[in-house]
Amino acid sequence: MGTVILVDDDRSNTTLLKMLLEMDGFHVVACPGESQALTASQNGVDAFIIDCNLAQGKDGVELLRAIRNGHTPAPQDCPVIMTSGDDRRIGEAELAGATKFLLKPFSPSSLSELLNSMLV
Are 93 and 52 in contact (CB under 8 A)? Predict the structure, then answer.
């Protein structure tokens, strides 16, 4: 179905989403931070799921900006779903070029459906 890079420092969330998306046929590469995601994207990526708040004060929106500005191995127009538990991040993510924003908590099935619609 496609390779998805999941960038989130919450290990429990990442493990669960990875398992459920793989059950739906996606190849998921889980990365706790930006540097791991950049390395993983060198092998090809069809979509990203990036949490706005990453460990050590890192900001997932900065990774989104890097993708959109062509500073990563990923295609600039690669679909990027941003996630956060804070709805105040929606505008910032949209301005940075997010394809879609999902407010946590969201259902894994809605994430899978969204990915399917983006990758068809």
Answer: yes
